[in-house]
Amino acid sequence: MHQGIMKAWLESSHLSGANSTYVEEMYEAYQEDPSAVSDDWRAVFDNLPPVDGNDTHSPEPAHSKIRDYFRSLAQDSRTKTTGRVSDPELDAKQVKVLQLINAYRFRGHQNANLDPLALWKRDAVAELDPAFHGLTAEDMDREFNTGSFAYGNGTMKLKELVKALKATYTESIGAEYMHITDTEEKRWIQQRLEPTLGRAAYSKDVKSRLLEGLNAAEGMEKYLGAKFPGAKRFSLEGGDSLVPMLREIIYRSGEAGTKEIVIGMAHRGRLNVLVNVLGKRPAELFDEFAGKHHEDGLGSGDVKYHQGFSSDFETPGGNVHLALAFNPSHLEIVNPVVMGSVRARLDRRGSDDGLQVMPITIHGDSAIAGQGIVQETFNMSQTRAFKVGGSIRIVVNNQVGFTTSNHHDTRSTEYCTDIAKMVQAPIFHVNGDDPEAVAFISQLAVDYRNTFKRDVVVELVCYRRHGHNEADEPSATQPVMYGKIKKHPTTRKIYADRLVAEQSLSAEDITGMVNDYRDALDKGDCVVKEWRPMTLHTVDWTPYLNREWDEQYESAIGLDHLKELAAKVSYVPETHQLQSRVAKIYNDRDAMAKGEKLLDWGFAEMLAYATILETKKRVRITGQDSGRGTFFHRHAVLHNQKDGTTYLPLRHVADKEGPFDINDSVLSEASVLAFEYGYATAEPAGLTIWEAQFGDFANCAQVVIDQFLSSGEQKWGRLCGLTMLLPHGYEGQGPEHSSARLERFLQLCANHNMQVCIPSTPAQVYHMLRRQVVRPMRRPLVVMSPKSLLRHPMAVSSLEELAEGGFRNVIGEVDTLDASKVDRVVFCSGKVYYDLLDRRRKENIDNVAIVRIEQLYPFPHEELNAVLADYQHVTDFVWCQEEPQNQGAWYCSQHHFWSSIPQGAQLSYAGREASAAPACGYPELHARQQESLIASALKL
Ligand code: AMP
């Protein structure tokens, strides 16, 4: 080993002497970045023997040992060789040259020419000056080894090297990638940037295509500005390069084999992207500007700059389906929605490496730095449940935060993109006024994503030509910037002049282009020549359209077959050693499967999944504890106590069954729920579930509930069958873990937008989950799911109850009471039912009937009427709830109760008093309150 190192050391071009200092410095450079030294030296360092058992690549103390080691080698060589003696000064300079290269790679972006307005004030980076490294004017004509710098042939005059470094790292592209620890990725980026000095040699056709994109971007805004003066359009102007950029990304992806791209973006520039990239007909947009309402069966609709769109786009590699996601006003929340939609499409296609479907998210500079959901989405990007093979993240940095803010008010980071470093994403900043650099770096980004399956960021540094909206006056708050902008030529003009100057196009060609585009807008037809009508290569949603919750459906599964499934779901191979508590649960399940024991909640739930999976449909469950279940009730994933391997009984219910994906999620609610919403809006066939660890955690995802789940169908016509399991129940666990905030969901209910259910038995949860898949309606299902009921001795069901019937929206009295003696009927939902029943039985009360309302919305009037048929003589009805009076169902649902009781009858309330907190924190107070509400409901 030592001899090999010695040989390499002696034979290396600059190293023929005994210069241990040089070697040490070289080694230091290698430690900082292995790619900073030449291949032969890296080979030497890579092969260094471990010192005292340490990895030689780790820093001190191993380093000092290595130094000694090289010193000894140097001495050795002096005694053993008579040949070449190096120039120590030149060798030292050689190291400095390598450090200079490194400095450009690390910090060139800080002095790159990124801002089209030249307003960015950035200090000169000292390390980029050769003098900083002790390199002098005389050195400029000296030839040096250029190490791993991928331009040229390994040696270069210093002045040429500096020129090449400047061209690569400090012109229109600022490449930030040296924070990546993976050497292969860094080398890959260097190999793409350096050989061509950070630019592409585009053909005339491509140049003309880029100009067409700019022409369309600018032409469209001018046209809208003239036709609808003062109307809000959130113009793209200043960031015009976004249009050619997106088009190049689509081309590149299509060539690589991508079949679908899902795009998420906020309002700025959206109309432009809709018309000039996705191919929305301008005439349709103009109608929207004119305020026309299309009678297309959609609900209340949304403003034009929130609209989504779908189309196909022809590329040399085949058609790519494009879907621009609908987006509410919250700027960044669409990102996890897009990722979820992409994951659903990848799963459907079986494209595990992410190649076939790609996400593009477009961010504003203040939003990407300001909104926590961005961090959450980055954090998900490489996890099992949420990875999508990387995303392209474009930041349109127009240098004005939301309406009027400067960057020092909107972030504390150097770049708005710094958050992306948490996943070591490469970040490419690019001057928006250089469309060729934009295209070059965008293509590189696509290739990087497809090669490494990781996120990559391109920051388009540009400006905003007008105010926040077109009626706004920006110079009131940004006088200097807008003074500059007024005089600044458009990107199209800059590029057109450049193409004329280099004789790629003539001035007449360019004028022709402008006129043609305007004529096309006049005609109102699609202006994207690559646009193709959508083919049905995605999903057919027609079976799910115009369906209602009370539609009849067939879901019965024969008892014998159910028993077979039960046996499979409770089977665990003998070699798989279970933890003792889990083993007890599976022993019980075995007895349940054999009909020796009544079913508990966890087993009924598992059986529901089994019945769905055997029909080849997918079941996907995510949540903070979903494999095991927060309350230890599910155990869908069994961990072998011997070796940690896992066994999932639900993956063995049929020969060819649907995929069962169950994954513990990242510790987030907003991004996870948004992701699952995106998944369910792109995958109608299976069952998609998000489970909150405790129901109140859904608070953190309120924006997703308000802006997507409850209103997405009405605003955008997008159906979503997502199920949310939200543990809810008053068990003395204090204010935070008792309530899933039922009242908030009920308050959002209208137009049959979602279902809110509180199942009270294992058979009910089984039927409810099956119904969500078997019935063709696709609307969110919000479940107040239990905690103590998971093990409540009364909350059990027989296999027969599962085999027969379906979900019961209302469950009438279960004891044999004489209806004519009943003088009070108590309505309730959820766990309180068992408290009422238990107490009534204990007190031998026979004049109070208890009716469970298992679906609070849409309200099951007919079923409740049927149950109340026997109680038409009763005048005393009570709604009993555990929640405080201002919470739970009392205020939101009592109009439904009133409309169901006989005329003249009274409805009263039995529950906790109104409270600012969801529940009290003292167990003793909780018990007293609970006793009081039960007593009040039962007239005790
Ligand atoms: P996409 O693949 O998202 O571009 O969708 C293609 C087409 O499928 C859309 O234009 C809609 O007609 C339909 N579609 C997609 N998602 C949904 C959904 N969640 N609800 C209803 N229709 C949908």
Name the beta content range.
5-15%
Number of strands: 25
Question: What's the level 1 CATH class of the largest domain?
Answer: Alpha Beta
Averaged pLDDT: 91
The CATH architecture assignment of the largest domain turns out to be 3-Layer(aba) Sandwich
Distance between the termini: 90 Å
Low-confidence runs (pLDDT<50, min 5 residues)?
Answer: 1-18, 51-62, 76-85
Give the overall silhouette.
Answer: elongated
Mind telling me the CATH superfamily name of the largest domain?
Thiamin diphosphate (ThDP)-binding fold, Pyr/PP domains
Fraction of helical residues: 25-40%
Radius of gyration: 34 Å
Largest sheet: 9 strands, mixed
Number of helices: 32
Provide the CATH topology of the largest domain. Answer: Rossmann fold
Bound molecules: adenosine monophosphate
| Structural class by SSE content | alpha/beta
Organism: Shewanella electrica
InterPro entries: 2-oxogl_dehyd_N (IPR032106), 2oxoglutarate_DH_E1 (IPR011603), DH_E1 (IPR001017), KGD_C_sf (IPR042179), ODO-1/KGD_C (IPR031717), THDP-binding (IPR029061), Transketolase-like_Pyr-bd (IPR005475)
Cofactor: thiamine diphosphate
Pfam families: 2-oxogl_dehyd_N, E1_dh, OxoGdeHyase_C, Transket_pyr
